[in-house]
Design a protein that fits this description.
By secondary structure, the chain is of the alpha/beta class. It has one domain: Metal-dependent hydrolases (TIM Barrel, Alpha-Beta Barrel). Helices cover 46% and strands 15% of the residues. The chain has 13 helices and eight strands. It has an eight-stranded parallel β-sheet, with helices on both faces. It starts with 7 loop residues before the first strand and ends with a helix.
Amino acid sequence: MSYRTQPKVELHTHLEGMAPPDFIRTLAGEKRRDLSPIFNTDGGYKFKDFGHFLTVYDEACTVLTGPEEFYRLTRAVLAESAFHGVIYTETFLSPDFCGGGDVAAWKDYLAAIAQAAADAQKEDGIVLKGIATAVRHHGQDACRKTAHCAAETAGDFLTGFGLAGAELEGRPADFSYSFDMAREAGLRLTAHAGEWGDPGRIRETLDALKVERLGHGIRAIEDAALTQRLADENITLEVCPGSNVVLRAVESWESHPIVRLRDAGVPVTISTDDPPFFHTTMTAEYEGLDRTFGWTEDDFRATNVTAARAAFCDEATREAILKQLEPAA
């Protein structure tokens, strides 16, 4: 069956990484930039491995040069998400790509994205919240600038702070100052950890950054004590199965640990990460879990309730989401 119309909650996307290839090509044409090397002959993004993916990602972002482009991008990606049944979503936003870490410029970009989100909510019924995200391979100083931008703009739309990028660059404690700044500003906290490397990276992230959610987190299954800790502390995992398979963080859908983590009591959720890069959608993720593990509408509804409860939103928004997730009478 198709799960396209089932209401969905998605917690782990990167706004720039959701850009459809045709959208980036259109901007490149407007700006007379040749980005043909980053595309396959079939029109999709072309990369060899995770490191090359980051390079292609950065290159695609070179045509996103102002608030207007980010308004257009946000409207495009939210329309696509809504088509696949997403009613609430959160996206990582990087001040590095939105004003180069300058607070004044960041405010202009963020205002454009927030306006696009408000317009999309009226037109498509989808709610978006933003998570300001430091890029760890840009270094500690850049991460502090991101935290400063986030602290200055925390509010109804920007509700979280996160850490992304090359996961094995630096140690989690290197970024504790940035996370302390974001925490003091009232932002909710998440960090990419446990897609690459050993489970110890996850433990370090929990200890140093004191996050309540983890991006990916799948390597925890290799450490029974750590898995139990995630369950005991109710640390929600933002799991992106299709992304994990394409990037070879796991060998196949069949070997993905999402079911084992869920069965161990760890709160798991489902997201697409950077869907056009990984040839996926939320519908495709659901169909993959159904095909591989026999998940049903009830499994997905329970996972969406988990996501809604872990969402970085106000309680009124959360209650509205949960209401939409209730089964039809």
